[in-house]
Specification:
Elements (H helix, E strand, L loop, with lengths): L3 E3 L1 H12 L5 E6 L6 H4 L8 H11 L2 H10 L3 E5 L5 E5 L8 E5 L4 H8 L3 E8 L2 E8 L2 E9 L10 H30 L6 E6 L1 H10 L1 H5 L16 H11 L2 E5 L1
Parallel strand pairs: 6-9
Antiparallel strand pairs: 1-10, 2-3, 2-5, 3-4, 4-10, 6-7, 7-8
Length: about 250
Amino acid sequence: MAGKTVTKRKLHNLLAELKTSPGDYVTLYVKPSSFPHYINKLPPEPECHICMDEIKEFVNTKAIIQGAEKYKTGAAIFWQKNGNKHVVLPPFPISENKVSFGKLDTSSLHKILDREYTIGVVLVTWGSYAIGIFYGDSLGESKIGTGYIHKKHKKGGRSQKRFARRTEEQKKDFLRKVSNRIEEKFKNHTPDYIFLGGNRLISKVLLKKCKYLELQNDKIATRTLNVKYAHKEALDHILKEVTKSLLFSH
């Protein structure tokens, strides 16, 4: 069983469909630090003990545990005894644990999806970067840049070692440059969350090298945005990726 990523629009459509489905629901919201043990400790409800057993079994599957670890945003669960059964890992964190029985409750998930966030985005690959600040659905400020990094030298011997040393210095210079640009662009803004994308290995190094990102560690999303290139076109379309949820259906 694998989850599928869904856009904000598709998730809104799904929630609207669920509301038209007759029958009672178990609705669960679980914040990141409580998933999945909050669910595992819930006592069975007399009117829906079968549902609770099913939910506990489903959320502890390998795919959902791995997805939750990647997103670290908690989970919204909408479960009918005979009907719809969905687990949603939203793009931004759920703030409180709660459970309800009966009428479907999508209010907390709607608040997460519909809130106007200030989002910082840093896309980086070796030799190029794209930095953006989004206000709601609009790109408010951006910076696109490059840095020369010599390609791997194919010859052996001293020449190869010399080029390798030069390449390492060029990489360090590039990371310093990107770190400075992040500081310049972000210092006058207060992002709710910061997303990194592009080369995952570079992102890990950048998190250690950039003082600004180090100080904002609690705002940095755990998932790396899946983009191949760090340029203006990628930045212009990245918000769709930022706001995707991960959906599991039973």
